[in-house]
Amino acid sequence: MAKQTWKPGNMLYPVPAVMVSCQREGGKPNIITVAWAGTICSDPAMLSISVRKNRYSYDIIKETKEFVVNLTTKQLCRATDYCGVRSGRDVDKFQEMHLTPQPSEKVKAPGIAESPVNIECRVTQVLELGTHDMFLAEVVAVRVDDDYMDEKGRFDLNAADLVTYSHGEYFTLGKKLGTFGYSVAKNKPQSIAGNNPKHKSKSSTKKGVKAKGRSGKHTRKEKGKK
What residues contact 106, with CB distance under 8 A and at least 6 apart? Predict the structure, then answer.
């Protein structure tokens, strides 16, 4: 297949569009929308966000060494965009977007009550990279809205309708294609994209065989445990 060669650039898309809340002691809470965010470690649970130095929230996060990552939904898409193009120096984003600051469990910065998941973080390191600085942070608490939990106590991605970002555009997640380890499972679901039903495995009639690995869904842990 023919391919074009482009100059180096960020083509790792789509990425999550999250609203990051922060607050100075005695100050008003603020929100910044961040697309450069991701998981960097499982144990201890850690994530990163990358922020330009000239952003209003940059100094707040660097001084307080804490923030809350709030996942965004289809219903929050307008607020997500607004919080990325307006500065907290000029407007109260919580007030303008009718969002509710919600007290956190482990950090002083509030979460966003309307967000389905609030991830409370403490900064452990700041990496100066170039246009952005990367804040490495340990996750100290996670709060999940009961309305987005399924009957087994797992976070339901379909119900949440989370938002992603790609080259200046917002998208919701598509349909589920499979679960972790399905490619080597004995019983391969025929509904998964890329699986040819004509090439049915001889072992597919065996029962009780499950793939090893993660289920791909997050379960709610007991309060107080990481």
Answer: 120, 122, 140, 141
In 3-state terms, what secondary structure has residue 12?
A: coil
Residue 82 neighbours by CB under 8 Å, 6+ apart: 93, 96, 97
First to last CA, the chain: 47
Output the pTM of the full model.
0.81
74 contacts: CB under 8 Å, gap ≥ 6: 161, 163, 172
* Per-position b or e across 169-208, b if 16+ CB within 10 A of its CB: ebeeeeeeebbeebeebebbeeeeeeeeeeeeeeeeeeee
HSE-CB at 7 with a 13 A cutoff on CA atoms is: 0
Q: What are 33-47's pLDDT values in tens digits?
A: 999 999 999 999 999
Domains of the chain and CATH, by start: 15-172 (2.30.110.10), 178-214 (no CATH)
- What are the tens digits of pLDDT across the range 118-134? 999 999 999 999 999 99
Structure tokens at 218: 């997050």
